[in-house]
Specification:
The complex is a heterodimer of chains A (about 425) and B (about 250). Chain A has about 425 residues and is α/β, with parallel strands linked by helices. Chain A has 8 helices and 20 strands. In chain A, β3 and β4 form a beta hairpin. The termini of chain A are far apart. Chain B has a domain of about 170 residues: Rossmann fold (3-Layer(aba) Sandwich). Helix content of chain B is about 40%, strand content about 30%. The chains are: A alpha/beta (about 425), B alpha/beta (about 250).
Chain lengths: ~425, ~250
């Protein structure tokens, strides 16, 4: 009780600053979520799940202002034929967005969807609530309760192009909370791209319900924003023979916590989650936290996370694979690696396996290392300058994660972006 | 071309003198061979010339066409025209062989103020050179030296040499780990690069490589010094009698 009392104060302080949208189909979900947050309390350093990442700036009532920096990074996906949905400082911008009509898909703003009945009622806050056990994720429940906007995407077919949620920031103090819901019907397919600076502080939730034989691809770039603080959650549930593939590129930002909670509920499904992260400076803190539950037969899961850290940057990886009783023929793979470019940078990793089935193949590995001096000398002896040789080896280190992006054009954009970041952050 | 005078080198971390005053002059168009027993300092000489960390020069000089090599970074030495074919070529996972070659060629060109090669131009040249060395398209696509056999690695070294067109080539025990056929192939590759303007220093334990790459001058190195210099017949003498006679003669 004593601990709950200590935590109550910041939670109440945060809630006091927020307005809950009233009425409509999401009303009950929001009230339930509010009750969850109040019961759990916002995270503090004393929570096991926040041992390596200080939640302070994410949970305090006021966001820390973040300076705007202009255009030193390449903007991704500009060359891709896509449907654009633009949010400025966390607010939907209709004028900058494309017409939200595309065959095989319906797209609505969360703020506009106010009827009493809506398909999203089966997704909104539902997957988030499922993901609260066994580990509480109060920031996600807070988001369900208070998110003012987001997009609701119902995929019924195979749209001809990806949907790109583009974030832009004009304010140094914007504190944005966005909640996106995606539902893929049986056999449907969607590629979702997300990029751009969201806000000084961003709390984002993405819930993805994937029906049988449906496929969801997600490529996200968190960058071009040097002082952003962000806590994001992805919750997904996979049906039989369905696919979920999500890749996140993180460059810059001071505090990023990306949670990904995956539940494999149908047989023969595959879930891949990957990330490539480059961080420079003692203020940089990046945390990937993944929880994958295998609750069906013959499913595959794959986690590939690579981080390049320099000048005192910190990287965290917490990844868990839970194989429930009966989830036979599970194939689980998890790798988390860091390349530490100096002695001041650090990487903290907590891989976990919990297995209750007996016919299972699960492997995991975690490493921290420096640039291979022999390889560096070999490249230099061929005339490649020290900096370029280091960059080449760094990109080679990140390659396994980037390869998780299936589309070759998107993969090249990601690689190009990483290369230009490395050039700008020359040792 | 390559002029080494009284070169003395010790290990950086240990109080151990490896080279105790090496004198060597290699003229353009000539092939010099250095032979010598294990631990005589042959490989150290090649590493110090190419700029590897871990060694400290305590005396003497090494110049390439009059330019002091020892003060330069490894990449600057390469751009100045020095090339070392490694005894143990390094595997670099994640870096494609082709990317590596093109990056190296263009980095050197840039350092010398020359125009960089376009992708198409480069592809044409690399394909032709690779064919001569029986290097197939797959080897060019794979990560640098990863999963290559001993022979493939050495052929890949010669391909790099052919693409970079250095002035001064050092081959460090290029014959080690090769069967006779692979050695012939490598030697043919080297011989094709012998021109009037290019010098070679071939470091080897055995005379057999010198049957295929015929040297103009042979040096015997022992205990950090060149102790004897002669013509190709010196290599045969070593092959027949070992180093004992020569070492005894000098002592």
């Amino acid at each position: 009780m004593a601990e709950a009392a200590v935590k109550q104060t910041p939670t109440d302080a945060m809630i006091a600053t927020l307005d809950m949208p009233q009425g409509g189909w999401s009303d009950a979900a929001r009230r339930d979520a509010l009750a969850r947050v109040q019961a759990m309390g916002l995270p503090s350093r004393r929570d096991e799940y926040w041992k390596y990442t200080r939640p302070d700036t994410l949970v305090q009532a006021q966001a820390v202002p973040a300076a705007l920096r202009d255009g030193d990074d390449t903007v991704l996906f500009d060359a891709v034929d896509r449907l654009k949905i633009v949010f400025v400082d966390g607010v939907f911008d209709a004028a900058a967005s494309d017409d939200l009509a595309l065959e095989g898909i319906t797209i609505e703003r969360l703020a506009d969807a106010t009827s009493d009945l809506h398909w999203a009622r089966d997704v909104y806050g539902v997957l988030e609530n499922n993901g609260q056990n066994p580990v509480p994720r109060p920031l996600a429940a807070l988001n369900t309760a208070f998110a003012a906007d987001g997009v609701l995407i119902h995929v019924t077919g195979k749209p001809s192009k990806p949907v790109n949620i583009i974030y832009r920031r004009t304010s140094t103090t914007a504190d944005a909370m966005l909640h996106h819901c995606i539902k893929l019907d049986a056999g449907a397919e969607l590629t979702l791209l997300e990029n751009g600076p969201v806000a000084a502080r961003f709390n984002g939730v993405l819930e993805v319900e994937i029906a049988d034989k449906a496929a969801f691809h997600h490529v996200r770039a968190q960058g071009r924003d040097h002082e952003q603080r962000a806590a994001t959650h992805i919750f997904t549930r996979l049906g039989t023979e369905s696919t979920f593939k999500s890749f996140t590129l993180t460059a810059n930002g001071v505090m990023t916590r990306n949670d990904c909670v995956i539940e494999l509920t149908g047989d023969d499904a595959a879930a891949h989650v990957a990330g490539a992260c480059v961080g420079d400076g003692g203020d940089f803190h990046h945390d990937d936290t993944v929880f994958i539950t295998h609750d069906a037969v013959n499913c595959e899961s794959r986690q590939v996370f690579k981080k390049v850290l320099r000048n005192g940057a910190t990287g965290v990886f917490q990844g868990k694979i839970l194989v429930k009783a009966g989830a036979q023929k599970t194939d689980g793979y998890q790798i988390s690696q860091s390349l530490l470019l100096d002695e001041d940078s650090q990487f903290l990793a907590k891989p976990e396996l919990e297995i209750y089935a007996d016919d299972v193949a699960c492997s995991h590995g975690s490493t921290s290392g420096a640039i291979d001096e022999d390889a560096l000398f070999y490249l230099r002896s061929r005339g490649v300058p020290h900096g370029a040789a280091t960059d080449l080896l760094t990109l080679a280190f990140l390659a396994e994660a980037v390869l998780e992006v299936e589309d070759e054009a998107l993969r090249e954009e990601v690689t190009g972006r990483l290369a230009s970041w490395l050039e700008r952050h020359a040792a | 071309m390559l002029s080494i005078k009284g070169l003395k080198v010790k290990l950086e971390d240990e109080d151990k003198q490896i080279l105790k005053g090496v004198d060597l002059e290699i003229e353009a168009g000539k092939v010099h061979a250095i032979m010598g027993p294990n631990g005589s300092g042959k490989s150290t000489l090649s590493y110090v010339l190419s700029g590897k960390d871990g060694y400290e020069v305590t005396g003497g000089s090494a110049t390439l066409e009059g330019v002091d090599l020892l003060d330069m970074d490894p990449e600057a030495r390469a751009a100045a025209g020095l090339f070392l074919a490694f005894q143990y070529p390094v595997e670099i996972p994640g870096v494609g062989n082709m990317t590596f070659l093109r990056t190296a060629v263009n980095a050197q060109r840039k350092a010398r103020g020359e125009e960089e090669m376009t992708a198409a131009e480069f592809l044409k040249v690399v394909r032709a050179r690779a064919k001569e060395l029986k290097i197939d398209a797959d080897m060019l696509k794979r990560p640098v030296n990863v999963g290559f056999s001993g022979g493939e690695k050495k052929r890949n070294e010669i391909l790099q040499m052919a693409m970079l067109e250095p002035k001064m080539c050092i081959l460090d025990e290029t014959d080690s780990g090769l069967d006779v056929d692979a050695m012939k192939l490598v030697a043919e590759g080297v011989n094709a690069l012998r021109t009037e303007g290019r010098g070679f220093l071939v470091i080897t334990h055995y005379q057999r490589l010198l049957d295929h790459i015929k040297p103009d001058v042979v040096h015997i190195m022992a205990d950090g010094r060149i102790i004897k210099t002669g013509g190709p017949e010196l290599a045969l003498e070593v092959e027949n009698n070992g180093y004992a006679d020569i070492l005894a003669e000098v002592a």
